[in-house]
Amino acid sequence: MKINKPKHDVNPDLAKERLKCNFNIEEVTNIIDGGKDKTVQRKKIEDIALNNGASLDEVPEECLSIKERYENAVRKSCVYGNLVRNEMLEITGIENFESPVLRRTADAFFKDISPFMLHLGMFVPTLIGQCTPEQTAEWLPKALDMQIIGAYAQTELGHGTFIRGLETTATYNPEKEEFVLHSPTITSYKWWAGGLGKTANHCVVMAQLYTQGKCHGTHLFIVKIRDLDTHMPLPGITVGEIGPRMGFSSADNGFLRFDHFRIPRENMLMKHAKVEKDGVYVKSAKHGKLTYGTMVFIRVTLVSEMSFNISKAATIAIRYSAVRRQTELRPNEPEPQILDYPTQQHKLFICIATAHAFQLTSCWLWNTFQAVLADMKKGNVDTLPELHALSSCLKAVSTSDALSHIEQCRFACGGHGYMLSSNLPFIYSFVAATRTYEGDYTVLLLQTARFLVKASEQAEAGKKLTQTVSYLNRTANADRLNWDNTHEGIIKSFQVIAAGKIGQCVKSIRDRTASGMDYEDAWLMTTVQLVGAAEAHCRAVLLNTYWSEMRKITEASSADVKKVMHQLAVLYLMYWALEKTGDLLKYSSVSKKDLDELQRRYEELLAELRPNAVGLVDAFDLRDEILHSSLGSYDGRVYERLIEEAHKSPLNDEPVNQSFHKYTKPLMLGKL
Ligand SMILES: CC/C=C/C/C=C\C/C=C\C/C=C\CCC(=O)SCCNC(=O)CCNC(=O)[C@H](O)C(C)(C)COP(=O)(O)OP(=O)(O)OC[C@H]1O[C@@H](n2cnc3c(N)ncnc32)[C@H](O)[C@@H]1OP(=O)(O)O
Ligand SMILES: Cc1cc2nc3c(=O)[nH]c(=O)nc-3n(C[C@H](O)[C@H](O)[C@H](O)COP(=O)(O)OP(=O)(O)OC[C@H]3O[C@@H](n4cnc5c(N)ncnc54)[C@H](O)[C@@H]3O)c2cc1C
């Protein structure tokens, strides 16, 4: 495999690690990419995007002012967008505009975030999912060609989670065949939409639809908010940026207020529900929640996004841990590489395994999503609730796990991990937002819990359940599972934990209603348990999917690759079994002796994986331009890079900062 040759000598410790690796790295890269041809395609696209240096910044993004950072990000977005439009989409095919390969190369341009991210990320998918064929013909080519730039304006100052509580109104006027968009209260300001503040000239707006004097709930509208030539906000539109936040600092999350702003009837996105010229409302024939489709789509894609982010953080932390030496183990012996500490391996090897677990699960989820879309095309929406439950819990758990693993990667890099030049803080703050946006963690797990409670009741009634909850048919009446110390045994025990927790929720709700509480209060009182049950279900799905997909995907692999992929999956199973010993003790016959044995085997596995650690992160094949890290580059020149980056600090532009003469010296002389 062609590796981008480092310009400098590779750090000797890192070079030695690469000699230790006992499997074919390229084979694992091909597995991650989804096949050899996909690796070739990815590398071709990366060469187009990155070889001309257009992604590089002279001054690090973080050293710029807010305005400069935004302006620089727009500049790079345009260069990048142009490359995507003219060269990269030709290779992937225009239908793959959301390809992970494009996503990966975008990261080389933006350490933080592109102000255009939501254009391709949500605006375009909404047009694809919510437009009639005529609307698609009108809007989609312009959006894909970037003649118009869009945002997704759903959340308001007062409501993000509870979509039915949104206050923006779209009132239909049949005489003029127009909708009037209005923000009636301060809490109805649209708030948060990425790219809305300064970049977008269009946006998709979620608003309460009124026609013939009646409210029909939230619907989507496409709205032009700025003049295409001058970029000035149109009359009736107040738009701006919401201010600095934890991350997302090179983008322009926006606010938007409508003052009786008129749009043509054709601007309601009418694939599912519509308003006729005379004002008659025709509701979706299929399902009431199809306007939420973009959210489901993004939740599905976020699982792979989390895999990518963990793989970046793991690459940085593991390469750094191979270079970094700290603390004598025995007097007069060299300090060990910190990667030799089992505690460090415990923090980091799970990250490699999780990146694989999420990647394989995301492919499986994507196929499930495509199958549901195909069903819906034929008018069958029966599979939608299961997809909604699945995408909700996988989005919640994958973003939450990614966040804590990335934090562990930062801890694993000690003080240097706190430097922005390590890139770990950027990765962390990006992923922190994913736990909240596109549906908050708790809220989404409660959506899954609704589905699980219904499924449990169906199992109780002897009905056959769909695939992801079919374990409830087998385990509904099981009390404590007989512990079986095999991989399949661990997976089964997680299904029993999930079934037990769901059963306990059903019982709590029933006990509470039997004692006089109404159903809503009984549900509310049980929500802490319900969140736990949905998380347990998600763990069972993740463990089962990772294990079975790993076995399938490595069927034709070489023995060494099979072995290391198998070791990672076993590590994942053991890690989670040990994390959940309380649940295992409650729901299975596992003994202290069994758990001690599991712990011993886990520690041995860390040692077995140790020689392959650097090889495993090299297999993610993340170019230095994408990693943006002083600690994680391929050559391991950690200390040299830290010094080079320090010299880029604007505070080092002159030997004495003016504040000394203005403030410090007068203070020292008592003249302030
Ligand atoms: C190149 C690009 C690459 C980049 C990739 C990287 C990044 C990603 C890109 C973009 C992301 C960036 C920024 C984020 C943008 C946003 O955050 S947009 C805003 C997102 N907002 C939310 O997610 C809000 C969350 N809230 C909800 O989803 C819903 O309000 C709710 C589900 C919590 C509740 O909805 P309600 O309307 O109140 O419904 P309900 O009464 O509770 O439920 C009624 C029944 O409907 C079912 N249901 C709910 N949602 C769905 C759905 N989506 N699909 C199918 N069914 C659904 C629900 O389960 C109920 O069913 P019952 O059978 O139990 O009655
Ligand atoms: C970086 C970023 C980018 C974003 N981009 C966009 C965008 O482009 N477009 C857009 O429309 N929106 C965007 N959002 C908004 C985002 O989708 C919402 O913030 C998110 O859905 C959470 O909603 P909320 O802010 O109303 O939180 P809230 O719902 O107010 O949550 C606050 C707390 O209340 C809890 N809570 C709320 N409801 C319940 C419940 N029913 N049961 C139990 N607990 C509950 C939550 O768990 C949480 O702990 C973005 C947000 C961020 C942070």
From TrEMBL:
Span of domain Acyl-CoA oxidase C-terminal: 488-668
Gene Ontology terms for molecular function: acyl-CoA oxidase activity; FAD binding; fatty acid binding
A Pfam family recorded for this sequence: ACOX_C_alpha1
UniProt main location, coarse: other
Superkingdom in the source lineage: Eukaryota
Required co-factors: FAD
Gene3D superfamilies cross-referenced by the UniProt entry: Acyl-CoA dehydrogenase/oxidase, N-terminal domain, Butyryl-CoA Dehydrogenase, subunit A, domain 2, Butyryl-CoA Dehydrogenase, subunit A, domain 3
Active site: 438 (proton acceptor)
GO cellular component: peroxisome
Signal sequence, renumbered to the chain: none
Keywords: FAD, Fatty acid metabolism, Flavoprotein, Lipid metabolism, Oxidoreductase, Peroxisome
Sequence similarity: Belongs to the acyl-CoA oxidase family.
Name recorded for this polypeptide: Acyl-coenzyme A oxidase
Organism expressing this protein natively: Pararge aegeria aegeria
Name of the coding gene: jg18692
